[in-house]
Amino acid sequence: MTEKHLALAAVCGTVPRRAQGRNTGFGHSPVGGKEMSDWWQGAVIYQIYPRSFLDTDGDGIGDLNGIRRKLDYVASLGVDAIWLSPIYPSPNDDFGYDVANYVDVDAAMGGVEAFDALLAEAHERGLKVILDQVLSHTSDQHAWFQESHLSKDNAKSDWYVWADAREDGTPPNNWLAAFGGPSWSWHPVRMQYYFHQFLRTQPKLNFHNPDVVDAVLDVLKFWLDKDVDGFRLDVANSYVHDASLADNAPVPPADRDFLTWAHPPRHQQHDRDWNQPENVEVMQRIRSLVDSYEDRLVFGEFAGDDKILGQYAGGNDRLHTAYTFTLLEAASLERSVFETYYEKIAGPVDDLFPCVTFSNHDVPRPVTRWARGVHGGRDATRVAKLGLGLLMCLRGTALMYQGEELGLDDIDTAREQVRDPFGLIYYPYFKGRDGCRSPMPWTAEAHNAGFTTGTPWLPLGPSHPGLSVATQEAGSESVLAFAREAIAARKSHIALRTGSLDLEDSDEAVLAFTRKADGAVVRCAFNFSDTAIETPFPSGGTDVLRLGQVTRSGETAQMEPLSFVAVQV
Predict the structure, then answer these.
(1) Does 98 participate in catalysis according to the annotation?
(2) Domain ranges of the chain
(3) DSSP sequence for 467-498
(4) What is the pLDDT of residue 139?
(5) Of 152, 259, 393, 552, which sits 20 to 30 A from 8 (CA to CA)?
(6) What is the pTM of this model?
(7) Does domain 40-136+209-241+276-379+389-412 bear CATH number 3.30.70.330?
(8) pLDDT band at 446 (very low <50, low <70, confident <90, very high)
(9) Catalytic residue at 234?
(10) Residue ranges of the Glycosyl hydrolase family 13 catalytic domain (predicted)?
(11) Candidates 3, 229, 291, 301; catalytic one
């Protein structure tokens, strides 16, 4: 979750595997006399938004049994792991990102029994399972908050961030919530304000309290002991706040864009309510716990200042890897976006194996960003394939979002269809994140495309039955077929999976780079423009992956619009 979504929208139970040693060098850890594998480096992780994947009980909401039914499909993509968005009990004010119990599974999802079966069956297919962890805040229905709000002297009174009102009754400082309004809500029982960075029903945990840190580590240990393979940490740079409650500094007027004026939190630098030095210490403790188990992964989402990435991820005592919103919020396919990411964000962090992603449950899908709106008229199928090819050729652990392999675009929601709290607040200026959360189309049938026999919690896009899995399985030129080809290319070429990345000189509309690992070299060039281009490219070699007409002659390549080539040289 990030307040930058407005800017983007304007454009468009088993024995645990325990490690016996700690990391002693970047990328490897001795385990029982052997080295811990770094399976995640260059892996492809497939994000599943359970509510929208497959409904098996007719209530219109996807569930864990639906994911179980489609594990063979997921495995057929060639991905290494699945990442499940929150599956815990929740009042669903923010659809699972308001957790009411960290160590249970929502009955609507199928409960613990369904999760245990899913975990076992995924492992049988060689798929690792990553759980989303929302540790910064809880639901106000969580037992911890239900106790904390009762008095100022109970056992959990300071497990959340409470503060007295100013003399005039106003909140203690100027902090603003991402979903609008002050970050403070008054509680009449305690007669104090409590802090929330998002909805008022998502109170912020107090990570200055060591008991809170221990409690969230116990949550992670609970799931690690059940043999899950790792975690994705939601808004991982927001755990710790400035205990002095000093005001956030304003963004200088010269640095404000149009949408700053549409979304008040963008007026602030968030230098006090996010990104505190103590946050790094929490990440270090989480990494230490995860590394005490064999072959586990913890990666994080970081919103705001991209330059903080190296503080939280990489090396042996920070998160294994992490992603920012730089690529997720790229409104256009431009060479400069990727140069910035690799030269100024990920590149300067020497011990970081990066994480790359174009799509998730928080942002408009790549096809929507790159083939709709100001880019209308582009071939959506071509753009979808170009994005998938690029994702599999770039350096980093690749995160794919369900439906990306089908080339889905966002749905358009009428006011009465909006479910996302962001959209409920800002509609029609920003319709929220429902567009990218529409149900998966499994068949071409007009009635819900095989997602549910009931009424889906969100509508499907009118074009989505025609993009269904069943439809695309029958076509050798489909986006789905290309997705499998691109993933297979990454898995079969070490240079694409784990190699270095060196940017090359090229036409300004072309992103060209070289991947190298263990003597293997793959040269890639992507034409992001709508015109044919001639660009420098070495002769010789064997195609690894290609889209469109690319004619190589001597030391140049003629590339048709929206084309690419990856060649092993």
Answers:
(1) no
(2) 40-136+209-241+276-379+389-412, 493-568
(3) G-HHHHHT-TTSHHHHHHHHHHHHHH-HHHHH
(4) 99
(5) 393
(6) 0.94
(7) no
(8) confident
(9) yes
(10) 47-437
(11) 301
